[in-house]
Amino acid sequence: MDIYASKRGPKLSVRLVGELDHHSADKARVMMDTMLHDLSVRELVMDFSDVSFMDSAGLGTILGRYRKLALRGGKLTVTGVSDSIDRIFRMSGLYALVERR
Amino acid sequence: MERNEIEIRFLSLSENESFARAVAAAFAARMNPTIEQLSDLRTAVSEAVTNAIIHGYENAEDGIVEMRCISEDDRLICIISDKGCGIEDIEKARLPFYTSKPELERSGMGFAVMEAFTDSMDVSSKMGEGTTVNMTKRLGRNAE
Domains of chain A: which residue ranges? Predict the structure, then answer.
């Protein structure tokens, strides 16, 4: 899993590339949390266009970042969601917390 | 009946999660699955193997995970087992959002995903002896 990030004002955009499973979730979590140390970040946009595989470990990673942002009144958005990832998001009720764009 | 079977054993290393789902998908590929069925299978296998590593062996890297894949005509059976600590309360473990390890940032959706992405899923477990997950899925256009 590789992560490419860019920040514009309060918005941090991250593009995830590769497979997001339990093995790679730790790395993804550490990388995103390092960037979220910057308290000026109020919105995190996670782009899944180049995620070739995701299981429920990815959900844990998203929910963990959501909680961090919610604590500072921020929000999380997901984009580039494939059908198979969408199914996992829908069955978990993720869209009640996270916007899909 | 057309029948085939494979079995692999691997160490409980997280890097083997992708290996296991790739093996299951390669075995299933000969059964003419749809792309969606293959994707579902990969996800379900990944959940089961991840559970074995995180919960069965509690992230110890010297456990052995076994995976058997059996094809019977258009039916695929995947049996994933560990000889780890076992599950105390299977009913509770299967509940969506339940996790015994909230500190690990787990979503608690593992068993729910396995159930949703296969046709049937059974779990048997004995404390101190291990856990076996048995999943079946029909593959091919007739299974739609």
Answer: 2-100
Residue B117 to residue B41: CA distance in whole angstroms: 7
For chain B, the residue count is: 144
Note down the domain range covering B99: 3-139
Tally Cβ neighbours within 10 Å of residue B80. 25
Here the tokens at position B86 are 């076992």
Q: Phi and psi for A5 in degrees, rounded to 5?
A: -125, 150
Q: Which of A23, A27, A51, A56 to mutate to test the interface with B (most CBs of B within 10 A)?
A: A56
pLDDT tens-digit series, residues A36-67:
999 999 999 999 999 999 999 999 999 999 99
3-state DSSP call for residue B105? Answer: coil
Q: Is B9 among the catalytic positions?
A: no
Is the pTM of the predicted complex or chain greater than 0.90?
yes
In chain A, which residues have their Cβ closer than 8 Å to the Cβ of B53? 22
User: Is B47 designated active site?
Assistant: yes
Domain covering A2-100: architecture:
2-Layer Sandwich (3.30)
Enter the ipTM. 0.93
| B58 part of the active site | no
Q: Can you give the CATH number for the domain in which B116 is found?
A: 3.30.565.10
